[in-house]
């Protein structure tokens, strides 16, 4: 029976369709059920693959990943930084006493201890006294510059001639870090301010028995003026420290040269060399004359 389309008036004019478009439309119409079925099959295959992948990953996590997470939680809970070692690294190392000296006289005595600050960027302030024959001297203030080694001295100890040794007692140590924000180059800072020179050192026998006459020129080669500049004079006898003296200048101006003359009474060996150590806290603004 020949095909007789109904309602031909409702059908658009087919003259504008190409043969290819007509063939595609016919093919799509006759195969749309199979296309739908293929789409469903592809969707099912995709779901199966996705579900299989998820099952594989969950299985991998259950057997491997879960225990790796447990180890990671334990690592996170355990501190990675040893703060005790870190504190020790950045804290100041303790001062050390490298030598003790006792210089008895006819009536009085001097006691000294060579003390070293091993820290290159710490200033230390402290109180000190000496125990001489068990009796304490009065408390005094002391300091050590970064990396400095110098004698801590008590002069003129009453009844010191009756003793034969002294023990240094340090208390109330206060460490102060000198940071790069305060001083850019600490070594240069210290060298510029502690630039002093000794010349024309002479030792002669004095007019009295057991007396030496010491004289030398001492100059301030720095660019800084100082109040109450204190210097310790170490007397050496053939490589052994035989005594310590001190000199204090009320003012010591930049470029100034001073003549130092000291009468030294002792029962010690002859002085063979002299060294002068500044005892100036260059980090204290009060020591400078503005």
From TrEMBL:
The keyword Transmembrane helix applies. Keywords: Membrane, Transmembrane, Transmembrane helix. The chain crosses the membrane at residues 35-56. This is Uncharacterized protein. It comes from Candidatus Magasanikbacteria bacterium GW2011_GWC2_41_17.
């Amino acid at each position: 029976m020949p095909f007789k389309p109904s309602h031909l008036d409702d059908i658009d004019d087919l003259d504008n369709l190409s043969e290819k478009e007509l063939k595609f439309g016919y093919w799509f119409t006759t195969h749309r059920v199979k296309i739908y079925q293929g789409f469903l099959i592809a969707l099912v295959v995709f779901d199966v693959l996705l579900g299989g992948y998820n099952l594989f990953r969950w299985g991998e996590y259950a057997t491997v990943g879960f225990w790796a997470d447990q180890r990671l939680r334990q690592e996170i809970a355990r501190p990675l930084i040893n703060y005790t070692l870190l504190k020790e690294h950045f804290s100041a190392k303790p001062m050390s006493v490298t030598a003790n000296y006792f210089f008895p006289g006819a009536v009085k005595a001097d006691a000294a201890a060579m003390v070293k600050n091993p820290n290159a960027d710490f200033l230390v302030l402290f109180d000190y006294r000496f125990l001489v024959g068990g009796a304490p001297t009065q408390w005094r203030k002391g300091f050590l510059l970064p990396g400095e080694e110098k004698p801590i001295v008590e002069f003129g100890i009453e009844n010191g001639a009756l003793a034969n040794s002294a023990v240094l007692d340090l208390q109330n140590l206060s460490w102060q870090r000198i940071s790069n924000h305060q001083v850019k180059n600490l070594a240069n800072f210290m060298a510029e301010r502690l630039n002093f020179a000794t010349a024309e050192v002479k030792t002669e026998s004095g007019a009295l028995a057991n007396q030496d006459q010491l004289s030398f020129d001492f100059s301030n080669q720095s660019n800084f003026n100082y109040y109450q500049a204190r210097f310790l004079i170490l007397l050496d006898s053939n490589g052994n420290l035989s005594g310590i003296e001190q000199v204090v200048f009320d003012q010591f101006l930049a470029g100034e040269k001073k003549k130092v003359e000291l009468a030294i009474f002792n029962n010690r060996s002859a002085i063979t060399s002299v060294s002068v150590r500044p005892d100036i806290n260059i980090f204290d603004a009060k020591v400078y004359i503005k």
